[in-house]
Prior knowledge:
By secondary structure, the protein is α+β, with helices and mostly antiparallel strands. Helix 11 packs antiparallel against helix 20. A hairpin with a 2-residue loop joins strand 2 and strand 3. The termini are far apart. Helix content is 44%, strand content 14%. The chain contains 27 helices and 21 strands.
Amino acid sequence: MKLYVLALAAVLSVGLAACASGGPSAAPAGPPAAVTPAPESGATGAEAAGPGFAAPLGVDLDTVQVGRFEFGKMWTFEFPPVQYFGQEYGFDPDSAWFTRARLGALRIPGCSASFVSADGLVMTNHHCAREHITAVTGEGENLIEDGFYARSLAEERAIEGFQADQLMDILDVTDEVESLLEGLDDEERSEAEEEVFEDIRERIVEERGGEDVEIDVEVISLFAGGHYSAYVFRRYTNVKLVMAPELQIGFYGGDPDNFTYPRYNLDFAFLRVYNDEGDPLDSAGHYFELDDDGLAEGDPVFVIGNPGSTSRLQTVAELEFRRDVGDRGVLTFIENRIDVLRAFQGANPEVARRMDLINDIFSLQNSQKAYTGQLAGLADPVILTKRLLAQRELQDSLSSPARANEYGSLIERMAELQERKREHAPAYASFLSLTNEEYEASTFVRALIGLQVMNVARANPSAAAGLRTQFRNVDDKPEELEVALMAARLQEFADHYGVNTGWVQDILRGRTPEEAARAIYARSVLADSATAVAAVEGMSLRADDPAMLVVRGYLPAFQVFQQMLASVFPEEERIARQLGRVRMEIYGTDRLPPDATFSLRIADGVVAGYPYNGTLAPPFTTFHGLYDRHYSFGSRYPDPSESPWALPDRWMPPPAGLDLTGEVNFVFTADIIGGNSGSPVIDQEHEVVGLVFDGNMESLPGDYIYLPDLNRAVAVDVRGIVEALESVYEMDALVQELRTGTTP
Length: 744
C-alpha cells in the first residue's frame, strides 16, 4: 500500500511564484468556446448554485453564464492552437515558430527561465535564483542583501546541484501506457503507474544513447490521464550565477505588494549555462533576442513557461471539499508556521539569517496570500455558479445514450467520494506535511522515520537502507525553533481532534503543547542528530522515548486516515482520467487545454490595464513610481531601511543617467499560475519583451477558474531591466550581450 503523507511540496516548491490567470476584457473574438453558456431551457444560475449561496450585492445569479475561456488558455505544444492564434491576432505561426519558442524556454527547479543570448545566457526571476545566490555566497559576504555582479566570465560563480531542462522532443505514449496498465483495478493501476512510466523513460533514454547522454525523460499526464506524453529534455547542470540585484530591488515592496498591481519590482537574475568543456553553451538559433522597441498597450504577447498546477477540470464537489476541508487545513497550517518562524526570527535575527529563514518565511507568506485568495474565490457564489453550469452541461453530454453506460454516473460518484473524505476532516488538518523538514520539528520527523526503520529492518534489513539515509539526513534545528515547531504540531492535534480525544490526552498528559514540547525535547534521544543516529543504527531506539510516544499516540488515527486515502485516491484518479478522456472527445484538445502539470505551455494575451478600487490600473509603471513608493512609505517606519519599499544605497539618490520615465513593470492578460515565474514574455518575432514574476490579487482563483475580465499577469519590462543594468549597476558587458546576442 502507498504511504499517503500529505505534504506542502506542491504548495511551496515554486517559492514566490506567480499565481495569476487572466484574459482580455475587450479582446477580439477567440476560438469556439470550450464550454458554452447554459441552455435557456436548463437550470438558471440561481438554481444551479442551490440553497445557501447568497449572491453578492447587485448580482443576479440568474444572469450568470459560462465564459468562453474559463477553463484557461495554457496551450500545450503537442496541441498548439494555430487556428485560434490566426483568428485572435491575425498570426499564423508554423511548426518552426513553435519549435523555436519551445527550445528557447527552460525549466529550472520550481520556476521557468529562457536563453537570451547565443552564449548560454539565461534570464529568470530573482526569487527563483534566491537560494542559489545564498549557496554561492562566500565568507564575509551577504549577496542576498548586496547583490552579485560578475563583470566577466571569470567572475561568474558555479551553482552546485542546479539543473535546467530544455524540452527537445514530445512523444505520444498514450497507447503504450494504456496497454501496460490494461486489466488492472484502480489500486493496482495506482501502484503500477510510476513503474510503467519508469520503464518508458528507460526505453527512450536507451534508444537515444543511454545514460551517458545528458537527457532526461518525463512522462506527463494530461487531462488527468486522458493523454500521456513523454517529454525528452536536454538537461544542463553546469550553470553559473552571472548577476542578481539586491533583495530590496528583486523583491521590491515585499509581502505587502505580493499579488498586487501597480508594481515596481525588478525581479530578475541572470545565469549562464556552460558545456562539458567549460565554455559558454552555444545556444545560437534558439534564444530570445532582446526587443529594442518595447511594448504598447494592446500589443499581443506570448508566455512560454511551466505553470505548476491547476484544478480547473475538478468537479464542483472536489472544489467544495477543498473550500471546506482541504485548502482550509493547508491555510491554517501555513499561518501557524509563519507565526513560529517569525517569532524565532524576531528573537534570533542573526541565527535566522544564517539559516536563510527569510526564504522560508517569504514562501509561506506567498502561499498564505494565495490560499486566502483561492478560498475567497471558492466562497464566491458567482464563481461556483459558473462551475456548476459548466458541469451541468458536461453531465448532459455524459448522460446521452452513447455515453451514459460508461460515463453517466462519474460526477455523482466523485461527489460520494468527497463525502467520505469529509468524515476525516480532522486528519487532513492534523497530518499535513509530517515529514517536511522545513516546517516540522526534526525530532518528530526522526520519530516517524525511525519507527519505519525499526519495523522494516526487522523484516527486511536491505529494504531499510533508503530509510536510514533519509533518517541520517535530518538536520538539527536550534532548540527554541525545534520546541516551537513541536508545540505547533501538538496544538494542531488538540485543535482538530479535540483536547479530550484519548490519544491527544495521552500525548499532552495535562500539559500545554509548549510544556509537552519542552519535556519531549529535554528527554528524547531524537532531539539531537548524534544520539538519534546512534540509537537507530544500534537498533536501540526505545518505544518509550518521548518523541516515539507521540508518533505511537497518533499512529492509529493516522493509519485509519491512510486506509481511507488508499481506497479513495485510486478511484478518484480513475474517475478524473475518464472525465479527462471524455472532455477531450467532446471539446477537442485545441479548444480545451488540460490542467497545468509543471510542463511547458504557451499562453497568449495582450497588454492591458484594468479597473480596480474605483480607478484604473495602468498597463505600465515607471521608475517615477518606484521612487514615489520609497519616499511615501519610508517616513512611516521608525527605521526607514525596514520599509519594504526602501531602496538600496546605490539607487539613492537616483543616478544621473537613470530615465525615470522608463517602464518597470506591465500587466497583460495571459493565463499563468505558479511555476510560470521566470517565464519569458515574447512577441510574434520571438523577441523577449518581459519577464513574468507575479499576478494581481484578482488572479488568485485562477487555480480552478480562468476569469478574463480582471485577472492579470505581472511582468518586469525588459526596458526596465536594461535601464537598471546600464544606469545603476554599470553592467555594460551584460547589456551588450543582451543587445547583440554574444559576449563582448
